[in-house]
Amino acid sequence: SKSELRYDNQTVVVTGAGGGLGKAYALFFASRGANVVVNDVGRSFQDEKGGDKAADIVVGEIKAIGGKAVANYDSVENGEKIIETAIANFGRIDVLLNNAGILRDISFKNMKDQDWDSVINVHLRGSYKCARAAWPHFKKQKYGRIINTTSAAGLFGSFGQCNYSAAKLALVGFTQTIAKEGVKYNILCNAIGPVAASRMTETVWPPEMLANISPDWVVPLVAVLVHSSNSETGSIFEVGGGHMAKLRWERAKGLILKPDDTYTPGAILQQWSKISDFSEPEHPNGIADMMEKLKEAMALDSNDTNVETLDFTGKVALVT
Ligand code: NAI
Question: Which of 20, 68, 137, 304 could crosslink 35 through cysteines, CB 3.0-4.6 Å?
């Protein structure tokens, strides 16, 4: 239909597109006119053999519906080769979906360097390498769209996944910074924390849940975020099963103490509840917001002392 969001003449690179969410993205963008680079190392998330032709199978499905796609089997750790595939085949890159991922779940006590490094390398370094290679093209054409894939595990922590959660929250910081650096070149970057049935989650969730969280229900939000009409950048969204919502930081009202010799651990203890009082929340989105708080502290009257407001009755020992 004439009113659908289209991506004609654009090139979309999807990492980890041999299955799961990546495959859903690849099929969608190809069906909406984009040239798609279907990247996947073609192994399972636990590094088992099999599925070696995953990207070719997806490319075959795209061609069968009249779309344009090419397979790429490089690891995202060699992101420049993936971007080269886009340029060599389609002459440009417009959208990068950093989606590839692995799990090496293990309790922190038993974690080995190999478990840590492989997860950090695929998710964090891989996303960096792909974005870094795409960046000069984006900058030159003054157009680029990047999606990084975070996770509830990163945003909130998750038992047995400290490697994965560290990588996933690092991607939020990465997203927010390159969003700030890219905006003047019309390079927009957002992070999504998806929930979807895939081989990564099929052993974790019950079948009745999996039936309602198709990867297809993550795709439309991503499609909006990478469309030329979008101006949203540096944001985090959770999305899955038809639910989608933006997430942000929240700061409590907080406690301001005058930095003098009455600024003691005891003075903090006396007013501890203010530190976590979220009844008047603020939603900071830059270091400048913190500067305002520092100015407030510096502006406290020279007669102010941090202990004078304490109700020291003599019954309670004054802790300093
Ligand atoms: P999936 O396992 O089906 O897809 C990941 C794909 O990445 C696989 O096809 C795999 O072969 C590929 N891959 C692994 N290492 C690679 C590398 N070095 N280079 C290129 N490709 C590589 O899993 P799913 O669920 O589709 O995951 C997609 C993304 O979504 C991942 O980043 C994952 O962490 C994230 N995610 C998924 C959630 C879910 O509920 N499915 C929840 C939160 C995050």
Answer: 68
Nearest to 268 by CA among 307, 229, 316: 307
Pairing between β-strand 187-194 and β-strand 35-39 as defined by DSSP bridges: unpaired
Distance between CA atoms of residues 233 and 183, nearest Å: 8
Would you place residue 294 in the very low, low, confident or very high pLDDT band (cuts 50, 70, 90)?
A: confident
Residues 6+ apart with CB under 8 A from 295: none
Q: Which of 25, 37, 40 maximizes ligand 1 atoms within 8 Å of its Cβ, making it the mutation to test the pocket?
A: 40
Give the domains, in start order, of the chain with CATH numbers: 11-247 (3.40.50.720), 249-320 (1.10.287.4290)
Residue 13 near residue 134, CB atoms below 8 Å = yes
Return the CA Rg of the chain: 24
Q: What is the ipTM of this complex?
A: 0.99
Q: Is the pLDDT of residue 1 over 60?
A: no
Residue nearest to atom 8 of ligand 1 (CA): 16
164 CA closest ligand 1 atom index: 34
User: What average pLDDT score do residues 272-301 get?
Assistant: 87
More confident residue, 260 or 45: 260
pLDDT band at 136 (very low <50, low <70, confident <90, very high): very high
pLDDT for residue 51: 53
C-beta 101 within 6 A of ligand 1: yes
Does residue 198 have its Cβ closer than 6 Å to ligand 1?
A: yes
Catalytic one among 23, 129, 168, 258? 168
Q: Which H or E element spans position 225? A: helix 219-225
Dist. CA 319 → ligand 1 center (Å): 52
Lowest mean pLDDT among 82-86, 255-259, 271-275: 255-259
Question: In sequence order, which residues have a C-beta less than 8 Å from that of residue 244 and are 6 or more positions away?
Answer: 221, 237, 238
Q: Among 200, 204, 216, which is best to mutate for testing ligand 1, by the most ligand atoms less than 8 A from CB? A: 200
